[in-house]
Amino acid sequence: MYAVDFDYYRAGSLADAQKLLGDHPGAKLLAGGHSLIPLMKLRLAAPPAVVDIGRVAELRGVTLSGAAVRIGALTTHTELAASADLGRAAPALAETAAQLGDPTVRNRGTIGGNIAHADPASDLPTVLVALDARINVVGPSGHRTIDAAKFFTGLMTTSLEENEIVTSIDVPVAQPGRGSAYVKFSHPASRYAVIGAAAAITLSGGTCSSVSVAIGGLVAHARRLPSVERALTDQAPSESVVAKAAAAVAADLGRDVSGDIFASAEYRTAVAPVYVKRALLAAAARASAR
Amino acid sequence: MKLPVTITINGRAYQREIEPRLLLVHFLRDMAGLTGTKIGCDTSQCGACTVLLDGVAMKSCTCLAAQADGASITTIEGLSADGQLAPIQEAFWAKHGLQCGFCTPGMVLATRALLETTPQPTPEQIRHALEGNMCRCTGYQNIVRSVQHAANMMGGRP
Predict the structure, then answer these.
(1) What integer pLDDT is reported at residue B135 of this predicted model?
(2) Are B49 and A1 in contact (CB under 8 A)?
(3) What per-residue confidence (pLDDT) applies to B155?
(4) Are B8 and B32 in contact (CB under 8 A)?
(5) Residues A5, B20: C-beta atoms closer than 8 Å
């Protein structure tokens, strides 16, 4: 399959990438290519120009700085999975990266490309939303930081403005007493998330002093589940309490669930509490072990 | 737009003028004439097009040739020297790790990448390493045995 013809420009630096985007209206950024190239081959996307930022070294790597770990937008899933700093600071994120796609996909796909693409069935957005990650971007009007929960706004749609570039993602370092986990119901062929649930819980004195939980796969974009969070906050996370809290997912999802030929909306809605419960229990078990 | 690129394949530099939309797999097959690399699904799922780019296993159907400008690629043709099968190829042959053979170049290169980092993999590690490579003939049992045999033949050396 061939993409519609386009012009190709390679950026040597972030500043160069910004200039190239400005000079070529409608240009798309190319990082690892594992979201954009398939779309272009299917001709679902046909940009007149592509700006390849794959070699911009300043956008790559994981660095630990105080209360947050900063992940460069061009960091591959393989690098995320292998990062000892990320494994300690946000184990749920490192584990999620380790099971994403397959090894060859993880070797090329990047976290920045993944979130800018905003596939509803992708795993990383759900985890980033649950972990209160912040997305750093730069554009024609300067730098800004977007909360992950406000970054994803619709089906393959983000709050990135025209010609803004994701530069890095900041993830808070997990403090003692905090545990996080991601569980998913994978499509048996594609391994994309039919339902993905991520949770982070802080335990103090045996009760949940802070709960954040996000869901993806069955809705247009990853989102928090405030009713579930409220139902579990200040409670001891026993299995029955967690199950009851997870049942509140129905109130948060409402009628927003979408279905497909593999799993109907009704089915996904019925199964969602199971995965939310599993994510919460796994996060709570880790929180009590830290 | 025409782009001049230089891609080194199995140690030999290929300088060509390409269209930006040319995929790496087409560069290998059509411009360098190295048809050992196969196109299966063409949607980055089956792994038949797996090659090494600067030593890293990747799907050449999901990479523009322009992205590989200046890179060093290893394809199945680059493994055997002087008509002698490389140990991994020998092992796939000895343990019947193929039937039709269409997936084999990708399997062999994914195996090569695995054994570089994990010279003595467990069966589970082998299965995870080959998750991105589909075989519709063998059912994978003999492929896992082939990889184990290759690791043994190579004596734990990458």
Answers:
(1) 96
(2) no
(3) 85
(4) no
(5) yes
Say which CATH number the domain at B43 has.
3.10.20.30
Report pLDDT for B158. Answer: 61
- Residue B66's pLDDT band (boundaries 50, 70, 90)? very high
Is residue B66 within 8 angstroms of chain A, CB to CB?
Answer: yes
Interface test with A, best of B25, B73, B131 (most A CBs within 10 A): B131
pLDDT for res B79: 95
pLDDT at B130 over 90: yes
Work out the pLDDT band at B46, boundaries 50, 70, 90: very high
Q: Which residue numbers in chain A have pLDDT < 50?
A: none
Give the pLDDT score at B81. 82
Q: Which fold has domain A7-52?
A: 3.30.43
CA nearest to B48 within chain A? A104
pLDDT at residue A189, rounded to an integer: 85
CB A13 within 8 A of CB A57: no
Q: Which of A104, A117, A192 is most worth mutating to test chain B (most B CB atoms within 10 A of its CB)? A: A104
Quick one: B106 and B64 in the same domain?
Answer: no
Residues B94 and B74 placed together within one structural domain of the fold = no
The single residue listed with the structure tokens 């782009």 is B3
For residues B90-94, average pLDDT: 97
Q: Which residues of chain A are within 8 Å of residue B66 when distances are taken between CB atoms?
A: 8, 10, 52
Euclidean distance between the first and the last CA atom of chain A, given in angstroms as a whole number = 50
B99 touches chain A (CB under 8 A): no
Kindly determine whether residue A5 and residue B42, on different chains, have CB atoms separated by under 8 Å.
no
Residue B101 sits in a domain whose CATH number is 1.10.150.120
The residue segments making up the domain with residue B134 are: 87-153
Token code pair at residue A176: 């003692």
Element containing residue A267 per DSSP (H, E):
helix A265-289
Task: Based on the fold, state whether residues B47 and B107 are members of the same structural domain.
Answer: no
Residues B45, B63, single domain; the answer is yes
Residue B158 lies in a domain: no
> Which residues of chain B neighbour A38 with C-beta distances below 8 Å?
43-44, 62
Q: Which helix (H) or strand (E) holds A199?
A: strand A193-204
Q: Beta strand A49-52 with A28-30: parallel, antiparallel or unpaired?
A: parallel
- Do B74 and B93 fall within a single domain? no
Does some domain include residue B13? yes
Name residues whose C-beta falls within 8 Å of residue A156's C-beta, 6 or more positions apart in sequence.
A117, A118, A119, A120
What CATH architecture is A178-289? Answer: 2-Layer Sandwich (3.30)
The mean pLDDT value of chain B amounts to: 96
Judgement on whether residues B74 and B91 belong to the same structural domain of the protein: no
Q: A150 to chain B nearest CA, in Å? A: 30
Do B40 and B105 lie in one domain? The reply is no
pLDDT at B157: 67
CA nearest to B71 within chain A: A55
pLDDT at position A145:
98
